[in-house]
């Protein structure tokens, strides 16, 4: 509909479509070309070895267009056989919308054409002002050599100037039928949509003195869906609908649908990126993981520490501020406070004191959009109530979305984080890790991975983990694919029916302190370091994480016992024995180095320079570390049980749909 959602859109004046619509609506007139344009001469050559159309050409044909429903002379060559397109073959004729707009000028370009000016003999249907604005076109002036004719005067030799039309009731039912779809192709429409999403954050999610702001959450969620995520999903859905009927030569061709293919992938990435958007504030490098992690919502924050060495031990000195201009969003609502720093009960409960809306509602909307697939399509049989199709992203991008949602659940920031580039001037540049990237690496060489979650919630996101276990299990199988269930299925051995182990698979198990055993199927010889999209096993990742935490807890518990039994008058020999026992429990130092991050601690443990003061420091630290690991284990076990219950529920649907094997 060519409306841009920008403050200055209304001052741009009327466009050519507006004039054409007015002429047709009020006086029943249409535009026709004074001279019919030339056809496109298309030679599509498919190379079965490379699978490409690199030798294909598009040029100007000597034949003229008789209708814009057939604008090409098309031949297709594959394996030495050439297939032609006879005139009048409506099944195989390609209309003007088949080709990318950058190809259509080939039909009109005339190097000898005169420039449009006040004395030009090139006709133009509208006002002199518009005609004068086209003076720079030169060789493209035949495209605008048009006139108006009443519809009952149009003859068989007249070629009507094509305009797209879409009335409001069909909004969203085609890729080029949407309010605020400014742009000449799918990608330009998508870029406009993404710019709206990024630029309107402050307008949408900040109070800005609006008295009714945040009283109701639903308009925020519904607005995010209808304005951003559903149109982005549509870009993928209509690409697939078009590509399924036009063939590989269309969606791999820069003259045809290649830009739509790129848009489809970028649109799904855009939706996924909203789920793992970073929180604003100060970040620093975690010296164990090497990732940038959030320290505080404040900017230019520094960790309070009595020991500069200890501060450097936990985090590096390369602090970085992540701001709204970097794409950061507030992960929880911000409320206004009185002079005493208090928030009124009614202000918080009814939203009257909300100054900044939580980005959670956008994340929730993005999660729904990534799962769903309903789409209305112009021309479907509404009489039989088949007014739409179900085209979820999982149909095409099953492997990539399995990897992405697995990363959300397990909080693997190699898959759901951000890539940070440090510039020479001290600034940083942040870009998301694409969800749809095949087997490509997370970040380029020299970039640093950023954990996007807030320190206030433990640099974790319980909501997204929970939704990530529920929605994929419920929705991904709607494509009649068991890819997700095969990858994510976890069984509680004491209660679940695991069925026969398929050939080529084995069990990977974990047993909790309470004796509860969990199991998941993995291919025989499974390599967990192979992170290709189609190799991801979410069930294994979750149980392996629990297993690692359990080993770490057991090691620290044994070390805690050793510290407790150390004599008060310990000798050098006692300290040496303690050191030998610690290295026997944790020979590589991996357990302690993952939690006791101070380099001073690590150096002493590795070099064996133990004394009473250091032992006292360990004695006070290790119990808190064990408590932290126990909490992580309990939280992880809840996620595991929730996923196991979700999978069990979906497998139970066999009762109702026995023909579908989950």
Description of the molecule:
It is elongated and about 110 Å long. It contains 19 helices and 19 strands. Helix content is 37%, strand content 14%. By secondary structure, it is of the alpha+beta class. It has helices at residues 16-27, 128-132, 186-199, 201-205, 218-246, 248-251, 258-275, 308-314, 345-349, 360-371, 398-410, 413-416, 462-475, 483-488, 538-564, 572-585, 590-595, 599-607, 612-651, and strands at 29-33, 38-46, 57-64, 72-78, 81-83, 146-150, 281-285, 292-296, 320-322, 334-335, 354-356, 374-376, 388-390, 418-422, 428-432, 448-450, 491-492, 505-511, 517-523.
Briefly say what this structure is.
The protein is an alpha+beta fold and 662 residues long.
Radius of gyration (CA) equals 32 Å
Query: Count of DSSP helices?
Result: 19
The major β-sheet equals:
4 strands, mixed
Label the overall shape.
Answer: elongated
Question: Are there runs of 5+ residues with pLDDT below 50, and where?
Answer: 654-662
Number of distinct beta strands = 19
Helix content: 25-40%
**pLDDT averaged residue by residue:** 83
Strand percentage, roughly? 5-15%
Instruction: Supply the helix-strand structural class.
Output: alpha+beta
Q: How is the largest sheet built, in terms of strand order?
A: 3-2-4-5
**Roughly how many Å apart are the termini?**
43 Å
């Amino acid at each position: 509909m060519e409306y841009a959602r920008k403050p200055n859109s209304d001052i741009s004046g009327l466009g050519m479509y507006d004039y054409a619509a007015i002429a047709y609506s009020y006086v029943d007139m249409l535009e026709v070309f004074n001279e019919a344009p030339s056809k496109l001469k298309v030679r599509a050559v498919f190379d079965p070895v490379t699978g490409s159309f690199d030798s294909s050409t598009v040029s100007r044909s000597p034949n003229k267009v008789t209708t814009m429903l057939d604008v090409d002379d098309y031949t297709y060559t594959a394996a030495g056989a050439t297939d032609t397109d006879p005139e009048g073959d409506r099944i195989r004729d390609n209309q003007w919308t088949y080709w990318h707009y950058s190809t259509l000028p080939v039909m009109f370009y005339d190097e000898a054409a005169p420039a449009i000016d006040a004395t030009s003999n090139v006709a133009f249907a509208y006002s002199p002002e518009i005609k004068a604005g086209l003076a720079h076109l030169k060789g493209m002036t035949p495209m605008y050599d048009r006139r108006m004719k009443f519809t009952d005067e149009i003859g068989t030799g007249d070629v009507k100037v094509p305009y797209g039309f879409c009335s409001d009731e069909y909004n969203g039912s085609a890729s080029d039928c949407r309010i605020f779809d400014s742009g000449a192709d799918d990608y330009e429409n998508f870029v406009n949509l993404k710019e709206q999403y990024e630029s309107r954050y402050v307008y949408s999610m900040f109070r800005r003195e609006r008295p009714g702001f945040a009283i109701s959450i639903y308009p925020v969620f519904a607005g995010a869906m209808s304005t951003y995520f559903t149109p982005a999903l549509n870009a993928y859905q209509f690409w697939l609908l078009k590509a399924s009927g036009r063939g590989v030569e269309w969606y791999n061709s820069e003259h045809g649908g290649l830009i739509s293919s790129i848009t489809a992938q970028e649109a799904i990435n855009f939706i996924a990126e909203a789920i793992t958007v970073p929180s604003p504030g100060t970040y620093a490098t975690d010296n164990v993981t090497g990732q940038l992690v959030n320290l505080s919502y404040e900017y230019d924050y520094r960790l309070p520490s009595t020991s500069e060495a200890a501060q450097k031990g936990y985090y590096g000195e390369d602090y970085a501020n992540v701001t709204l201009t970097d794409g950061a969003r507030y992960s929880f609502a911000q409320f206004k406070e009185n002079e005493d720093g208090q928030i009124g009960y009614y202000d918080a409960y009814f939203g009257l004191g909300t100054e900044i809306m939580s980005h959670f509602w956008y994340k929730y909307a993005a999660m729904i959009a990534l799962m769903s697939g309903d789409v209305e399509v112009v021309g479907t049989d509404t009489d039989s109530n088949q007014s739409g199709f179900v085209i979820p992203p999982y149909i095409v991008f099953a492997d990539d979305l399995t990897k992405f949602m697995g990363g959300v659940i397990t909080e693997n920031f190699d898959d759901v984080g951000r890539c940070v580039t440090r510039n020479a001037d001290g600034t940083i540049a942040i870009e998301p890790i694409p969800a749809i990237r095949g087997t490509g690496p997370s970040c380029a060489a020299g970039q640093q991975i950023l954990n996007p979650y807030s320190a206030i919630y433990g640099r974790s996101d319980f909501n997204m983990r929970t939704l990530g276990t529920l929605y994929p299990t419920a929705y991904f199988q709607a494509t009649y694919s068991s890819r997700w269930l095969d990858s994510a299925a976890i069984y509680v051995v004491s209660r679940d029916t695991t069925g026969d182990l398929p050939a080529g698979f084995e069990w990977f198990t974990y047993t909790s302190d309470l004796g509860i055993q969990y199991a998941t199927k993995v291919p025989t010889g499974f390599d967990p370091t192979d992170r290709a999209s189609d190799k991801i096993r979410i069930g294994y990742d979750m149980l392996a994480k629990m297993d690692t935490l359990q080993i770490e807890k057991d090691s620290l518990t044994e070390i805690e016992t050793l510290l407790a039994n150390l004599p008060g008058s310990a000798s050098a020999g006692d300290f040496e024995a303690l050191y030998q026992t610690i290295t026997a429990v944790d020979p590589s130092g991996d357990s302690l180095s993952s939690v006791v991050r101070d380099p001073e601690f690590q150096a002493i443990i590795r070099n064996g320079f133990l004394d009473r003061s250091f032992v006292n420091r360990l004695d006070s630290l290790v119990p808190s570390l064990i408590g932290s690991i126990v909490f992580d284990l309990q939280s992880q076990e809840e996620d595991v049980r929730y996923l196991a219950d979700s999978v069990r529920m979906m497998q139970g649907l066999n009762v109702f749909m026995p023909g579908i094997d989950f």
